[in-house]
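Shapes recur. One chain:

:::
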Amino acid sequence: QVRMVESGGGLVQAGDSLRLSCAHSGRSFENYNMAWFRRAPGKDREFVAAIAWSGDRTLYSDSVKDRFIISKDNSAKMVYLQMNSLKPEDTAVYYCSSQVLARRSLTTTETSYVYWGQGTQVTVSP
């Protein structure tokens, strides 16, 4: 059973930066696409960013593009989300997720990601 644990959330002011981390416990981490999603209060969970298993391709939602950067460290089995120029509308619980099939095409589709962490709260004050 793969376990994923996020960390790094917190309370910041608008314009600040945060770096989220996610530890993946499974084998062959280097073969899986990884993604970050978020759920704002009263809203559905939405796609934020994804990174290909090889690390050479990334996808971002329009709302975070040019502000957030996703990366992965295969040797450490970690995925990161560097969040810059944070806005109050970025307030949400952030979840990291992993696909279970190896070396698939990168996707933003939530149902393509099988393993999920418990989430970490990010709150951005005005």
Q: What stands out?
A: The first strand starts at residue 4 and ends at 7. The chain has no helices and eleven strands. The radius of gyration is 13 Å. The mean pLDDT is 95.
